[in-house]
C-alpha cells in the first residue's frame, strides 16, 4: 500500500464556504492546502479521534474529529475512493472509517448534541444538520427559545444568518434548559467580548489601510483597533501572515497583517492591515501581566518590561500572540540598493517587494501573490515611455496583475530573481526580442547596440535638419522684422496688381526697389544648398560592400550567445568586459584562427570593392554624357529664346519711355482739378490708341 494519498480539487468547509484546495494523507497525518489563501491545515495522525464517510451535495465527504474537539470537513470525493481511504485509515491511523448518512425525513424536531466544536441536530441516530460553533457570532435567549446568529460569509452567494431553537421546559429543578443550551454554545462560539484589561496598548499608530490613526489594544484572543470614527475587532485566528518591510527611503517601516476573512466597513473589505512606522520612534512597553504569567504564556518570547523601536515592539508582540513567523524581504536588491521596486498598480504608485516565496505590493491596493499560485510572469514594453517596462503576473486562476512604470535599470535584477526562483517566464522563448523592446539602450547585444546607435545617428540628422529648417524660417522672419522701412514696399510688391506703378515712383525709388529683390534672391540662393546638405550626407549607396569585421568582432558575434547563456541577464557593458577578458585570456593558436577568418573577409571586401568601383565608374561616365547632352539641349533653346527677346525689346523701349513720360506728367500735374481732368482725358486717348503714340514718339526722336 502507498504511504501517501493525494487528492486534487477537494473542498474544505470553513464558516459556510467551500474552499478549493489539495488534500494529502500520509503516515504522519492529514495536510490540506487552501488554493486561495495558501493556508495549510496540518492534522497529526496521533490527534485523529474519528473518521466519518458520508454522502453530501458535492459527491461524498470526509469528516475528521480530533481529540481536542476540532472538526474538519472535506468534500468532493468519488464513491469509488471509499475503499482506498478506508484501507489507508486502518493501516496508518488505526481508525475505522465509519459510513453515516444524513437524515432526509424533513422533520423539524429532534435532539441536540454538543460534541467538541460542533452542534449536531439528530433524529434518532442520524444527523439532520451540523453547525460548527465557531461560525456563531451571537447567541441570545428568550422564554423557551435560543437564537443563534452567524458570521456573514462574503464568498457565498447566500448566507445563513440566523437559526432559532425551541427548547421545551423540563421538570428538573434548578436547571434551566435554555440557559444550559446557551452556555454550551457560547463556550465554543466565536463571540468577541472585550472583557478584562488589555495586555498592552499602542497609541496613535499611523494606519494606511484602513486609513487613519488608531489605538491598538492587544487582548489575549483578539486585536482591537480603536479610531475616531471606526472600531475593529480582529481575532488572531483570522491572521494569515505577518510582514515587516523596509521603505525605500530607509527611514520608515511597513508592518503588514494579512487577514482572512477580512475586516469590513460597509461594503469595503480590508484584507490587509498596514501600519507605517518611523525607524526613529522608540517606546518603553510594560505588559499588563505579572512575570510568571508572561513566562508561562509566552515562554520567553516576551518579557514584562521591554524597550526599543516602536515597529520592533509591535511586531514582536504580534508574533508572540498570533504565533506566526514574520516574513521579511529576502536577498533581492534593486538597482538603487533597496529591497523593493518602485512601480504603479491600478494608476497608484507603490512598492513591489520580491520575497522568498512570493511578491507583495504596498500599499494601495495591497496585493500578495505566492509563487505556487503563479502560472507565469511576463516582461513587457512600457505603454507610455520606452524608459520603463511592465511586469505582468498571471495566476493559475486566470487573474492578471500588471505592475507598470518600472525603471529599465531594474530589469536585470528582477529578471535574475525570477529566473533564480524558477518561475515560468511567458516570453522566455522571445527573450532576446523582449530585451530589445526595453533594454536595447543597456542590455542588448552588440549587433542590436550598433543598430541602436545607427538609429540614434539618423534621429540626430533629422533633428539637425529640423533645426536648420527652423533657423531658416526664423532667419526670414528676422530679416523682415529688422527692416520695418521696407515692410510697406514688400507689401506693395506682393499685393499691388499694377507692377509698373511701383516702379514709376522716381529714379531713386526704382533703384532702391531694384536692389531689394536682388538681395532677397541672394539669400534664397545661399539657403537652398544648406537644406540639401543633410540629403547629401544621407546619400549612401546601399549596394556598396560593407566593411569587414575585425578578428575580435567575428569571435564576439560567434560567442555572444554562449556568454549570455552562461551569465543570464548580463548587461551590455558587463558582456563587453567579460568578452574582453575571455579574448585576452585566449591562446595564440585560437586567435590566429580568427585572424585568418578576418583576413579572408578583408580579401573578399577588397575584391567586392574593385567590382563595385568599376560598375560605379561606368555609371558615372553614362551620367556625364547624359548631363552634357541635356546642357546642349538647354543651350539651344536659350539661343532661340534670346533671338526672340531681342526683337521684342526693340519695340518695348519706346513704349516704356512714353509710359514713363505720361506717368511723370500725371504725378506732377496737380495744379487744378481741370488740369487733372485734361490729363485723365489724354491718358484715355493714349490707352485707346497705343500704336499712333509710339509712332509719334519715334518721329519726335527722329
Automatic annotation (TrEMBL):
Keyword DNA-binding carried by entry: yes
Biased segments, Low complexity type: 497-507, 644-660, 687-702
Biased composition (Acidic residues): 474-496
Family annotation (Pfam families): HMG_box, PH1_SSRP1-like, POB3_N, Rttp106-like_middle, SSrecog, SSRP1_C
CDD domains: HMG-box_SSRP1-like (cd21994), PH1_SSRP1-like (cd13230), PH2_SSRP1-like (cd13231)
GO cellular component, one term: FACT complex
Basic and acidic residues bias (residue ranges): 532-544, 609-620, 631-642
Xref: SMART domains: HMG (SM00398), Rtt106 (SM01287)
Signal peptide positions on this chain: none
Record-level GO BP terms: DNA repair; DNA replication; regulation of chromatin organization
Any one Gene Ontology molecular-function term assigned to this protein's record: DNA binding
UniProt-listed PANTHER family: FACT COMPLEX SUBUNIT SSRP1 (PTHR45849)
Name assigned to this protein: FACT complex subunit SSRP1
Record organism: Pteruthius melanotis
Amino acid at each position: 500500500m502507498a504511504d501517501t494519498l493525494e487528492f486534487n480539487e477537494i473542498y474544505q468547509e470553513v464558516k459556510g464556504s467551500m474552499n478549493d484546495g489539495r488534500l494529502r494523507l500520509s503516515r504522519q497525518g492529514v495536510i490540506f492546502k487552501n488554493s486561495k489563501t495558501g493556508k495549510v491545515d496540518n492534522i497529526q495522525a496521533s490527534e485523529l479521534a474519528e473518521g466519518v464517510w458520508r454522502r453530501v451535495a458535492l459527491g461524498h465527504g470526509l469528516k475528521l474529529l480530533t481529540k481536542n474537539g476540532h472538526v474538519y470537513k472535506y468534500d468532493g470525493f468519488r464513491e469509488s475512493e471509499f475503499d482506498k481511504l478506508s484501507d489507508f485509515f486502518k493501516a496508518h491511523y488505526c481508525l475505522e472509517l465509519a459510513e453515516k448518512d444524513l437524515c432526509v425525513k424533513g422533520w423539524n424536531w429532534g435532539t441536540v448534541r454538543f460534541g467538541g466544536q460542533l452542534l449536531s441536530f439528530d433524529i434518532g441516530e442520524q444527523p439532520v444538520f451540523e453547525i460548527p460553533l465557531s461560525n456563531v457570532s451571537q447567541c441570545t435567549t428568550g422564554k423557551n427559545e435560543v437564537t443563534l446568529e452567524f458570521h456573514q460569509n462574503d464568498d457565498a452567494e447566500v448566507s445563513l444568518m440566523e437559526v432559532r431553537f425551541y427548547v421545551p421546559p423540563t421538570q428538573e429543578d434548578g436547571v434551566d434548559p435554555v440557559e444550559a443550551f446557551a452556555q454550551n454554545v457560547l463556550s465554543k462560539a466565536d463571540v468577541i467580548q472585550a472583557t478584562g484589561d488589555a495586555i498592552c496598548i499602542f497609541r496613535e499608530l499611523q494606519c494606511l489601510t484602513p486609513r487613519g490613526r488608531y489605538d491598538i489594544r492587544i487582548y489575549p484572543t483578539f486585536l482591537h483597533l480603536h479610531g475616531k470614527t471606526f472600531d475593529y475587532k480582529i481575532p488572531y485566528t483570522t491572521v494569515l501572515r505577518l510582514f515587516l518591510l523596509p521603505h525605500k527611503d530607509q527611514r520608515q517601516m511597513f508592518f503588514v497583517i494579512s487577514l482572512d476573512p477580512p475586516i469590513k466597513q460597509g461594503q469595503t473589505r480590508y484584507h490587509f492591515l498596514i501600519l507605517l512606522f518611523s525607524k526613529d520612534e522608540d517606546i518603553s512597553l510594560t505588559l499588563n501581566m505579572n512575570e510568571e504569567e508572561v513566562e508561562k504564556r509566552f515562554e520567553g518570547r516576551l518579557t514584562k518590561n521591554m524597550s526599543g523601536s516602536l515597529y520592533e515592539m509591535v511586531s514582536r508582540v504580534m508574533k508572540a500572540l498570533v504565533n506566526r513567523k514574520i516574513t521579511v524581504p529576502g536577498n533581492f536588491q534593486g538597482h538603487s540598493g533597496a529591497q523593493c521596486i518602485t512601480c504603479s498598480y491600478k494608476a497608484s504608485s507603490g512598492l513591489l517587494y520580491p520575497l522568498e516565496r512570493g511578491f507583495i505590493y504596498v500599499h494601495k491596493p495591497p496585493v500578495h501573490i505566492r509563487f505556487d499560485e503563479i502560472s507565469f510572469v511576463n516582461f513587457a514594453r512600457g505603454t507610455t515611455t520606452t524608459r520603463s517596462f511592465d511586469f505582468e503576473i498571471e495566476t493559475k486562476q486566470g487573474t492578471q496583475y500588471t505592475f507598470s512604470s518600472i525603471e529599465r535599470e531594474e530589469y536585470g535584477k528582477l529578471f535574475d530573481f525570477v529566473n533564480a526562483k524558477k518561475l515560468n517566464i511567458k516570453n522566455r522563448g522571445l527573450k532576446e526580442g523582449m530585451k530589445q523592446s526595453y533594454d536595447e539602450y543597456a542590455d542588448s547585444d552588440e549587433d542590436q547596440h550598433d543598430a541602436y546607435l545607427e538609429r540614434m545617428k539618423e534621429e540626430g540628422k533629422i533633428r539637425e535638419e529640423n533645426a536648420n529648417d527652423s533657423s531658416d524660417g526664423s532667419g526670414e522672419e528676422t530679416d523682415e522684422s529688422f527692416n520695418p522701412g521696407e515692410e510697406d514696399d514688400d507689401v506693395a510688391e506682393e499685393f499691388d496688381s499694377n507692377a509698373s506703378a511701383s516702379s514709376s515712383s522716381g529714379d531713386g525709388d526704382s533703384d532702391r526697389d531694384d536692389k531689394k529683390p536682388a538681395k532677397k534672391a541672394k539669400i534664397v540662393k545661399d539657403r537652398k544648398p544648406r537644406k540639401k546638405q543633410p540629403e547629401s550626407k544621407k546619400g549612401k549607396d546601399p549596394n556598396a560592400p560593407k566593411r569587414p569585421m575585425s578578428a575580435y568582432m567575428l569571435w564576439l558575434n560567434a560567442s555572444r550567445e554562449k556568454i549570455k547563456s552562461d551569465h543570464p541577464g548580463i548587461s551590455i557593458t558587463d558582456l563587453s568586459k567579460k568578452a574582453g577578458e575571455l579574448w585576452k585570456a585566449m591562446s595564440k593558436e585560437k586567435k590566429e584562427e580568427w585572424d585568418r577568418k578576418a583576413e579572408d573577409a578583408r580579401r573578399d571586401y577588397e575584391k567586392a570593392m574593385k567590382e563595385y568601383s568599376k560598375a560605379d565608374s561606368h555609371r558615372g561616365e553614362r551620367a556625364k554624357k547624359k548631363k552634357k547632352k541635356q546642357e546642349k539641349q538647354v543651350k539651344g533653346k536659350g539661343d532661340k529664346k534670346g533671338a526672340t527677346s531681342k526683337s521684342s525689346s526693340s519695340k518695348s523701349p519706346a513704349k516704356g519711355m512714353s509710359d514713363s513720360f505720361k506717368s511723370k506728367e500725371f504725378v506732377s500735374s496737380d495744379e487744378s482739378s481741370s488740369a487733372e481732368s485734361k490729363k485723365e482725358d489724354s491718358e484715355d486717348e493714349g490707352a485707346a490708341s497705343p500704336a499712333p503714340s509710339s509712332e509719334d514718339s519715334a518721329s519726335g526722336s527722329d
